[in-house]
Amino acid sequence: MAPQPVFEPVIDQHDTWLAVNPVQGCPKGCTYCYLQDLGLTRAKPKELATPEDTLRQLLGHRYYHPALVLALYTCTDALATPATRAHLTRFLDVLGASAVRNPVCLITKCAIPDDVLACITRNRKAGLPVLVYVSYSGLGPDIEQGINHAALRSNFPRLHAAGVPVIHYWRPALPQNSTPDVIDHVMDLAVRYALCTVAVGTKVKPTALDQITDLWPQLADPHLDPQAADSVWPRTTWDWLHHMPDRYAGHPVFQTNSCALAHVLGRADRAGVFNTPTCLSANRCPAAQREICRRTVPRQQPVTETDVDQHLARIGHPHLRYTLNPATRTVVLNEPAPLRDRHNLAQVLAVTVRSPQDPGERYWPGRLSGGQPLIIDTRP
User: What digits encode the pLDDT tens for the residues 42-67?
Assistant: First the structure.
């Protein structure tokens, strides 16, 4: 019997963006999907809010801020069914007609039909900065069940020809897609049409270890702790990223989503990545983007205790004690707070937030709690 669905908030804060989820549940069956333990895969999408009500919830939400990136329909694939596509196009038109000008991301593995592409382009022309993440990692139909991979690949040239910014989402990294021929097959397409690639490895949330070990049995080794890692990588993929063939040398590749968005949007880093080891050794960032960060990051508006107090009160923590280091833009909370609240504080104020870990947290804290990549020598 399928599990009862557990719906996420319509407006929610993730580590990179503000998630907007008026429709939840996906008919596809990707075996690694983080929605699986919520009962939201192989499920009929359910509308939780109309497009108009979604806009009202967004603008009235304690997390909303005009500087944040909006990621739409992260609890489904909005391109998967006629009903979800109709909801998406209506919502984009509602956003485009409003005063909202937050950058908007769509993430998909499904074909983008002509009417959706036309909707994206008309709202971009109206001033709504819409960009598309094409999630393509070379996995087959045995793992990404229900996905038309030929249609998925066709999204790259179609979006590029329409002038829509494309970010290639290369995830997850599993033994099944870590061989050199699969990597080259993926990247030979992506570098032709995408502005950059985001490679994020495999994320293992606290409730999904069994799900991931079914795909990658080595992660069941009791000497490993994949849930404490920022991400898990087959060594083949990790080494490829750090010794990229010359023919891909001009293509930006980021392990931090926030940096990819900064690059595509022409912004400086606001996530505390600039000049860290991740910035200097993990991300393959263009020189022009590094120059934007070099000039801008040191000149950010100073953060004060008043700023922190006011935002903590806004998100429901008016009496939470903390220590602020203005020089490093670091806020250390004295007691646990929900991960989504910490992410929102970090993104709105452009600070690093440290906090005791909440033992009941369902999501991966990753780099937020100092997690590092875990590299696995995969067995033949």
Answer: 999 999 999 999 999 999 999 999 99
Which residues are CB-contacts of 4 (< 8 A; sequence separation ≥ 6)? 39
DSSP 48: -
Tell me the per-residue pLDDT of 219-261, one tens digit each, with 9 for 90 and over. Answer: 999 999 888 888 999 999 999 999 999 999 899 999 999 999 9
- In 3D, which of 235, 171, 230, 176 has the Cα closest to residue 197? 171
- Distance in angstroms (rounded) separating the CA atoms of residues 42 and 324: 45
Integer Cα distance of 350 and 329 in angstroms: 8
Are 70 and 54 contacting, i.e. CB atoms less than 8 angstroms apart? no
Average pLDDT over residues 167-172: 97
CA dihedral 138, 139, 145, 151 (to 10 degrees): 10
DSSP string for 165-219? -EEEEE----GGG-SHHHHHHHHHHHHHH-SEEEE--B---TT-HHHHHHH-GGG
89: exposed, middle or buried (C-beta count within 10 Å: 0-12, 13-18, 19+)?
A: buried
* pLDDT exceeds cutoff 70 at 1: no
CA 245/CA 240 separation, integer angstroms: 8
pLDDT at 326: 97
Check if the beta carbon of residue 178 is closer than 8 Å to that of residue 213. Answer: no
Q: Do the beta carbons of residue 234 and residue 178 sit within 8 Å? A: yes
| Distance, first Cα to last Cα, the chain | 35
What is the spatial distance between Cα 49 and Cα 250, in angstroms, rounded to a whole number?
Answer: 42
155 contact partners, CB below 8 Å, separation of at least 6: 108, 111, 112, 132, 134, 166
Smallest CA-to-CA distance from 177 within 133, 237, 252, 245 is with: 237
Q: Is 263 helix (H, G, I), strand (E, B) or coil?
A: helix
DSSP character at residue 303: P
- H/E stretch holding 242 reads helix 235-242
